[in-house]
Amino acid sequence: MAVTQGAVNKSYVSAIDFLDQRDIDPNIYDQSRDRAFTDIMKIVNRYKPATMFYYHNFVNQDVYEVGTISAVTSTGLAQIQFTINTASTFPRVGDLIMTSNSNNIGKQGRVQAVTFGSGTATITVRSVGGNSAPLYATVNDTVQFGSNAFAEKSTAPTNRRYSLTKYYNNIQIFREVDEITDVQKVAKIEVNVGGDYHILPYQTVQKLIKFNGDISVQMLAGVQSTTLFNDTNPFLADPSSGLPIQTTGGLDWYIITYGISDTAASLGTFGFTELDEIIDNFIANKAPNEQMVICGSRSYAVVSKFLKNLASSGVTSVRLNIDGRTLDFEVEQLKYRGWTFDFVHVPIFDHPQLFSSTLRADINGSLYFIPKGQVDTVDNGRQPYMQIRNTPTPFMGSAANKSANGIVTEWRTGALAEIPTSDTLELRTNWETAQGLEALAVKHMQKYRVV
Amino acid sequence: MELLQIQHYNNLSDGLRKKLETRISGFGKTVRYRFDIRRQLVDPLTKTEDKIWPSLYTLDPAKFTINDADEKRENVAKTKTIALIESVGADGKAERFAKARVKEPMKGELVLYIQDRPEDYQMCMYLEMHPKNKNGMFPDATKHQVFFRIDELAAATEERKTRSARKVAMDTAEKMSESELRVFADAMLWDRNQDEILLRNMAEDLAENEPDFFNDIVADKKTKILSVIKQALDNKYIQYNPEDGKLSYASTGQTIVVLGENAGLNGWGKYAEWFLTAGDAADGVYKKLEGMLKKQPA
């Protein structure tokens, strides 16, 4: 450039390429906050190894059943006869029964004869109070078979067989990858992650957040696939290899498929009516009376409005304690009718790209009730209500370009890996894990939509 | 008792109420609704199927709107909000709303005793207008039709038809002569030389469990043809080549018919159809085969 005359001003200097310094903040600010939103592992961070890619559990049956009267042959007598169409294989001669009929208050009857039909049982019942205490039956009355009574030198009652119900869920294989070329791996950028002014660490952080988020989303709202790894003719399959793909059912799937699903009659309102309904649902399913309630901001708001209007003695702020572990959540605790509810705001429900009120209104607007303690086994053992099942890593041995925490494995390939694996000048980082959710005794869990 | 009309809820026109009443009066004493909430579990190891229902399913939405085309009243909107009002407050306003709920022991079926229980009648009116009722009055195609009313009349007709077919099948199976039984066994590709009692038991079992199939086989001319083909093959009067599906005389190798590769893989049905439809040529072959079998020592 030739020598010119005049004052040295800003425009003069800026016209010279690369001469100006640039003021760039080297930090990358976490505006997306996906990491903060997607972590539900604070709620379910118990891992239990699985030996197979489908895991099963059995639950026992209720020892009592309730029958519903569908037809009445005779009523208002000391011996009556009626037909039930639910619990039809339960009654047996010798059962002492009570019914919901208001005319039967203070009365009990003994089953004298049972005739089984197709999905029905016709029962002859004699009042224990004799002619002065006639029994009544009307259609839709419910009948409990609460006790039994036998004569001297009696023969054994008919044997009842109690079955077991089996539930299962699947392990899902999650993967993520990051690829970078030799040139961009060493080219510096203006911002840094942990003092490293390259693009690689930033990409890695983003990928890992997404990877963990994908797992969280599936554990919360995933749907169990009908296809399994052992299917010879899989419906859900890799289009190129034809090999099956299986997915794990998450908390929402467990509850709507096997647990309690209910909804406020008027969405957007929450009061004693809804609270009573929630508790009645639990009582009907013999659920434990200490429950953790996980929810997003919209549903929490509806509840909070109700809680803030209660006398302060009813609501306290506590630290959440699940299965002996105290967690650092802001929790509002409500005690009512002998039940304790700890309301926990879990940000993933509010995630605008995952479960917003328009994307998944039902998940976003629901309260999920999960018992706080552990579920008993019939021989007095215990297991957490929810845990993550993970299969062992398929990778062998240790290597400089591989690391694992027992659950997730990371390995690097390409010519740029610690131990080069090809002659292509690139670095490929892979993450893999195989996990699934296991929820036990799901009828103790409830999804209640409030908004 | 009809759906309670409080505030703006259930403010139906007379025309719609009448339509609903007429509709429900055709249901009889009891009405059943089946909810599609069953989970079919196929065991990954044994492939056996199990059915599991949720502990509690609640039909949503609990309140919904319909378009009452029969509304003629002035200043009354055609859009109606429908809800099951459970209780009314001291101020005369709806306080609590009921919901349609299906518990696990109900196995996805809600039974309403509409003539005996007023609350069931109300529920029936409500469900008949619900947008998720597949055969309701206002099904909403944009929503998953999660339930439907079981048409008791159609169900009863179907059950009677099945029962009649079973009776006919059982009677036929019981009265079959021994030779008829063995012809039937051939048609079923069973071993015709088994003990008569065993064959009879197999035939009766089929008649009991698959009466329609049994009756079709018995009534079918095909049965006899199938039997002749099988016997002729067993006795080596004719031979079958799976490569081109050729049926030919065993003694001379003369072709009877060629129906293509593996035409006889799942039985001789295709050949029986050829005998039935190919006219004089096929009839001639059939008669010849029958003659050969008759000469066969018993």
Give a description of the structure.
The complex is a heterodimer of chains A (451) and B (298). By secondary structure, chain A is α+β, with helices and mostly antiparallel strands. Chain A is built from eight helices and 25 strands. Chain A has helices at residues 10-14, 34-38, 182-186, 199-221, 251-258, 272-284, 297-308, 361-364, and strands spanning 47-49, 54-60, 66-74, 79-84, 95-99, 109-116, 121-127, 142-148, 164-170, 172-181, 188-193, 196-198, 260-263, 290-295, 315-322, 325-336, 339-345, 366-371, 374-376, 382-384, 386-390, 402-404, 408-413, 426-439, 446-449. A seven-stranded mixed beta sheet of chain A has the order 13-25-18-14-17-16-15, sandwiched between helices. The radius of gyration of chain A is 32 Å and the shape is elongated. Chain B has 298 residues and is of the alpha+beta class. Helix content of chain B is 40%, strand content 19%. Chain B has helices at residues 14-25, 118-129, 152-175, 178-187, 196-209, 211-219, 221-234, 269-277, 280-295; strands at 30-35, 39-42, 49-52, 56-58, 64-67, 79-82, 84-88, 94-98, 101-103, 109-113, 147-149, 238-241, 246-249, 255-258. In chain B, the strands form six sheets. Chain B has a three-stranded antiparallel beta sheet with strand order 10-1-11, with helices on one face. In chain B, a hairpin with a 6-residue loop joins strand 2 (39-42) and strand 3. In chain B, helix 3 packs across helix 6 (211-219) and helix 8 crosses helix 9 (280-295). Chain B starts with 13 loop residues before the first helix and ends with a helix. In chain B, 26% of the residues are buried. The chains are: A alpha+beta (451), B alpha+beta (298). Chain A binds chain B through residues 54, 65-66, 68, 70, 85-87, 138-140, 165-168, 170, 226, 228, 230, 256-267, 273, 281, 284-285, 442-443, 449, and chain B through 30, 39, 41-45, 50, 52, 54-58, 60-63, 83, 95-99, 101, 103-106, 111, 113, 116-117, 120.
